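User: Predict the structure for this protein chain, please.
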Amino acid sequence: MRGMSNENLIVKLFEIDKQAEYFFKNFRFDNGDELPLNYQEKYTLNASILNSIKLIQTNPILKSKLLKNKATGFWKKISIQVNLAKNGLNHNLPSNERRIKGSYISYLEQGYNSLISKRFGSQNSRKVDEKVLKLLEDIVKQFKSDSPTLIKLKLDSFLEGNIQVIDAESGGLYNNEDFKGLNISTGAIKNNHLSEKEIQQYDSYQLLKKEMYLSNNFYDCFSKLDIEIRIKLLEQFLSLVDLVKKK
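Assistant: Here is the predicted structure, written as structure tokens:
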């Protein structure tokens, strides 16, 4: 077709990656916080564009069309098209030749996780460790509530020295100085504290944590497979689900 060589192949091949959409929507940081909605959308766009680049790189016809039958200059051409695509697709991938290549390689190696800004790590990576988790458990027991909002209020009061919290195991009192500098969000509490039922079933809680971890990483690994393999795996998985249901 006349003018085909001037087309932006990235835009032409662009298709929203539904798996990326699901991944970023359900992604949780260690403290329980979600990705802000605008970043969920932005990262889904970025993944979808990188998928377009992969299609071009792995399809000889598309690659030849991009390069106009030349043997070199792939990333220079890609960087130009990525930059032009910002107008219509509003992504925030780098347009610099070296950096877009680096982003693409990281995406191939690490999947969707590679697209999450490192700045989120410093803000959200603090974990509710076992020591803090035990304190939260005892707050739940003492005040007979598993409301994250109430637990947060009681935790802050304890940290400020306004209330005492009993260590259910030893019978002694927690020392708020041992938790100096602790600052966790209601979201972190919601993701990590144990309800009264879960306190009695701690093993079940550990399984839920493992399930969340596996769920967050499943689509990252799954997306790296060829579509034919993904379809076969999904068919096999659904067959196994049917067998379990019948039992």
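The CA atoms of residues 107 and 114 lie 6 Å apart.
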